[in-house]
Each structure stands twice: as structure tokens, then as C-alpha cells.
């Protein structure tokens, strides 16, 4: 009979503990939207810009905005995976991550665009502007126009990845990215528009 070595026993013990230990990837995902109201979110001064209809967050404008407006999370986040479904009726919207609320409904920071002609684009609102863009002709083929689109956005350290409908459209490491910030949804200046958000959840990473 083969006698286990000290190294072999140590490896066996480590494997056993690994099986018993909780996941090292992060905490359980938490819903950021209760499907009923905007508890946990900060509305812009004109609260009518964001409403809840049939379990969905609806952002809409009459075409008279003077500046982009945002629905912002009360809580800030560091490393995380954010999942959200987006349906754009028209015009321009986006999902802010690790961003900063500036007051009066204004938010600055990294944004995953959900916009006509700008799907698959990473934009820094109130900062450096366009940072990176997936080839537009390829991005357009990924989009479910007039229907729900799945975003999975992960921030780990200085690395940001954006997955649109199962395809990674942005994978960027940038030392200028903030280390922490809020999540926010955008309505944009310009013509009357509408965008919808649902199934919003976040998993904070260790």
C-alpha cells in the first residue's frame, strides 16, 4: 500500500478546504431595482424623467432638456459585475459605472453607450469623451433593435469589460478610471426619447 507523503496530504487537505469554502469571486448578486418604485435611486430635479411602469424603469423626455440627466444609485461600488437589460426606443442613452453625481441630475464618469449609432462604445461623460469603440458595423449586428439588450459590465481594479448580448465589445485597462462610484442611467438632450431598464443586479467582487 502506498503511504501518502506530507506533500500529498497537504494537497489533499487544500483541495478539501477549497470545496468547503464559499466562492472567492464575490458576494451573491443583489437586485438594484425592486420592480415597484425607485427606492435606492436618486432622481434628477425633474423626477418625471424616470418612472416605473409594469416593473420596468422608464426614462423619457419631451425634447426640452438643457443637459443630460441621470437616475443614480444611492450606493457607490468598487469591483463588481453589473447586469441590466436595456430597450431603446430611440435616440441616445447609456449606463454609467464608477461615476460621480455632481448635483442637479448631472453625472460624470465611464458610460456604456446604448444609443443609435453608438452601441458598443465606451464614453467618459463630462470628461475625456469617447475612449474606445467596437466596430460600429459589427455592433449593429449584435443589437436587438426595439427589443431588450443584455449588458454585463465588470469593473475589476483598473480593468473594465462590457459584454453586449453575449459579445465582449469593450475590454479596457485604464489607470485614469476611478476606483469607486455610482451606477446611473441616462436620458439625453435632443429630440423626445424613451429608454427602458429592467433586471438590474450587481455582484460585488472580492
Describe the fold and architecture:
This protein is mostly beta strands. Helices cover 11% and strands 48% of the residues. It is built from two helices and 15 strands. The strands form two sheets. Strands 1, 3, 4, 6, 11, 12, 13 and 15 form an eight-stranded antiparallel sheet that branches. Strands 2-5-14-7-8-9-10 form a seven-stranded antiparallel sheet, with no helix packed on it. The longest helix has 15 residues, at 6-20. The chain starts with 5 loop residues before the first helix and ends with a strand.
Q: Which structural class fits the helix and strand makeup?
A: mainly beta
Helix content: 10-25%
Overall, the morphology is globular
Mean pLDDT: 91
Gyration radius, to the nearest Å?
20 Å
List the helices and strands in order.
HEEEEEEEEEEHEEEEE
Terminal CA distance: 43 Å
| Main sheet attributes: strand count, strand direction, barrel closure | 8 strands, antiparallel
Beta-strand percent range:
over 45%
Number of helices: 2
Task: Provide a compact summary of the structure.
The protein has 206 residues and is mainly β.
Which features characterize this protein?
206 residues, mainly beta, 2 helices, 48% strand, disordered N terminus
Layout of helices and strands, plus pairs?
Elements: H1 6-20, E1 30-31, E2 41-42, E3 50-53, E4 56-60, E5 69-73, E6 80-90, E7 92-103, E8 106-115, E9 121-125, E10 129-133, H2 136-142, E11 149-156, E12 159-164, E13 167-173, E14 182-187, E15 194-204
Antiparallel strand pairs: 1-15, 2-5, 3-4, 4-15, 5-14, 6-11, 6-15, 7-8, 7-14, 8-9, 9-10, 11-12, 12-13
Amino acid at each position: 500500500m502506498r503511504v501518502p507523503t506530507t506533500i500529498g496530504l497537504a494537497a489533499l487537505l487544500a483541495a478539501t478546504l477549497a470545496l468547503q469554502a464559499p466562492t472567492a469571486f464575490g458576494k451573491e448578486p443583489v437586485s438594484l431595482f425592486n420592480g415597484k418604485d425607485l427606492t435606492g435611486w436618486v432622481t434628477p430635479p425633474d423626477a418625471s424623467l424616470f418612472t416605473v411602469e409594469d416593473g420596468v424603469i422608464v426614462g423619457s423626455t419631451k425634447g426640452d432638456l438643457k443637459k443630460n440627466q441621470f437616475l443614480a444609485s444611492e450606493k457607490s461600488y468598487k469591483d463588481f459585475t453589473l447586469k441590466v437589460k436595456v430597450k431603446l426606443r430611440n435616440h441616445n442613452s447609456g449606463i454609467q459605472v464608477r461615476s460621480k453625481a455632481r448635483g442637479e441630475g448631472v453625472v460624470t464618469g465611464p458610460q456604456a453607450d446604448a444609443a443609435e449609432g453608438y452601441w458598443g462604445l465606451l464614453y467618459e461623460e463630462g470628461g475625456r469623451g469617447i475612449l474606445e469603440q467596437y466596430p460600429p458595423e459589427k455592433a449593429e449586428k449584435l443589437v436587438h433593435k426595439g427589443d431588450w439588450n443584455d449588458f454585463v459590465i465588470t469593473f475589476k481594479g483598473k480593468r473594465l469589460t462590457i459584454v453586449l448580448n453575449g459579445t465582449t465589445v469593450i475590454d479596457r485597462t485604464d489607470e485614469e478610471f476611478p476606483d469607486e462610484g455610482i451606477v446611473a442611467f441616462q436620458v439625453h438632450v435632443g429630440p423626445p426619447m424613451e429608454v427602458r431598464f429592467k433586471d438590474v443586479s450587481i455582484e460585488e467582487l472580492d
